[in-house]
Write a structure and sequence with these properties.
Elements (H helix, E strand, L loop, with lengths): L4 H25 L13 H15 L3 H21 L5 H34 L21 H59 L1
Length: 201
């Protein structure tokens, strides 16, 4: 039943992103109290996020394959729903597919690449000798890379929540349309019954 797979795949991916939120929160949204004077108060959270990302990236290949199958199933669900689309499918599923593809792009461009950088531990310009600083601004350091990953999680979560809202809106619109058609059919049947009674009299 691919038509229903899109919301379920989206729910699963949002759940996975929710697991990263405790790490992302202290990096993006709040400044935690400093535990050690003179040390960045976010440093323990950078370390926790880094360890978390390394752990996820080091998971067995089966885990990433399952995630990619879920992503592909969601994509297949949207494409299937857009085959010979109705107006509602074209609007809601088309917009959902655009948001979903934006999410896939964020996943590939930021999250996968960022996890590789975190796992390798090579931040900034790898061509520089150790201890040198890159002033060009073309490369991100450790903190900025982790902030980009945290922000990417948030962006991806918002995109996927948008997909879920659009799918819920489509369900509501279809239900409302079905109720209106049923009401119109009921009135039409009542009208026919009245006309038959008048003819009999």
């Amino acid at each position: 039943m691919p038509a229903m797979s899109s919301p379920f795949a989206t729910f699963l991916i949002v759940g996975l992103l929710f697991a990263s939120f405790p790490y992302d929160y202290n990096i993006l949204w709040t400044t935690p109290p400093s535990l050690v004077p003179g040390v960045d108060s976010r440093e323990p959270y950078y370390q926790m996020l880094e360890n978390h990302l390394k752990f996820i990236h080091a998971s067995p290949p089966l885990i990433s394959r399952i995630l990619h199958i879920v992503i592909g199933t969601g994509l297949l669900g949207f494409i299937t729903k857009l085959y010979r689309p109705s107006e509602a499918n074209l609007l809601f599923d088309g917009a959902s597919l655009v948001l979903y593809m934006c999410g896939v792009t964020v996943y590939i461009a930021n999250i996968v690449k960022g996890m590789r950088v975190v796992t390798s531990g090579v931040y900034g310009n790898p061509a520089l000798a150790e201890g040198q600083v890159d002033d060009s601004g073309d490369y991100l350091g450790r903190e900025d890379s982790l902030k980009v990953l945290a922000a990417s999680d948030t962006i991806l979560a918002l995109l996927l929540v948008g997909v879920l809202i659009l799918q819920a809106g489509q369900w509501y619109a279809n239900k409302k349309e079905a109720d209106e058609i049923e009401e119109m059919d009921k009135k039409h049947d009542e009208k026919k019954a009245l006309q038959k009674e008048k003819k009999k009299q």
